[in-house]
Amino acid sequence: MPKCEECRKFFSLEEDPKKGDCVQRVVDPRQAYYKAKPVTAEKDAAKCESFEKK
Ligand code: SF4
After folding, report:
1. How far from 6 is each of 2, 41, 46, 51, CA to CA, in Å?
2. What pTM value is reported for the model?
3. I need a surface site. Which of 7, 11, 12, 53 has the fewest CB within 10 A?
4. Could you tell me the distance, in angstroms and rounded to a whole number, from the CA of residue 22 to the centre of ligand 1?
């Protein structure tokens, strides 16, 4: 089962590598930007459509 820590979009926190941010690039017709949300390294990534293996 893949976990967020195996995903390219996971960036762990320096002070606690078990926590991090999921950073995704969002492109809409007028602009592209990054969206970040807090996730844990152990979070199940099996159901995530944006999972990308490192
Ligand atoms: S939530 Fe999805 S895109 Fe974000 S780090 Fe986890 S597996 Fe990757």
Report:
1. 7, 8, 11, 9
2. 0.90
3. 53
4. 6
Which residue do the tokens 């078990």 mark? Answer: 18
Q: Where are the domains of the chain?
A: 1-26+37-44
7 CA to middle of ligand 1, Å?
6
Instruction: Render pLDDT for 44-53 as a digit per residue (tens, 0 to 9).
Output: 999 999 999 9
Among protein residues, the one whose CA lies closest to atom 6 of ligand 1: 4
Q: Is 53 helix (H, G, I), strand (E, B) or coil?
A: strand
- SS3 of 28, please? strand
pLDDT tens-digit map of 5-35: 999 999 999 999 999 999 999 999 999 999 9
